[in-house]
Amino acid sequence: MCEVLMKLKVQKISNGAGLRVPKTVLQHLGLDVGSIVDMELTDEQLIIRPKPMPTLEEMLAACTPENTALSEEDREWLSDGPVGKEIL
Q1: CATH dotted code for 10-50
Q2: Which of 26, 38, 61, 63 has the greatest count of CB atoms below 10 A from its CB?
Q3: Taking every pair of C-alpha atoms in the chain, what is the biggest distance, in angstroms?
């Protein structure tokens, strides 16, 4: 494990705040702009870990009849005809 101590400045970003992570750190962790990370706050420490992307097999395994079934509202919306100047 490679341990590195860095000082980063918390910067204002819109209504929130952010840290600028050096490119070399992103590359070391296999991250890029837009990557998703897990953040944990424990005992006054902020821990940020890369969140691995699920594989296709993992995503498909999460699809069950219960969580992919269409609701009555979905069925009504899908069976509605055009209401304006849509081109079908």
Answers
A1: 2.10.260.10
A2: 26
A3: 60
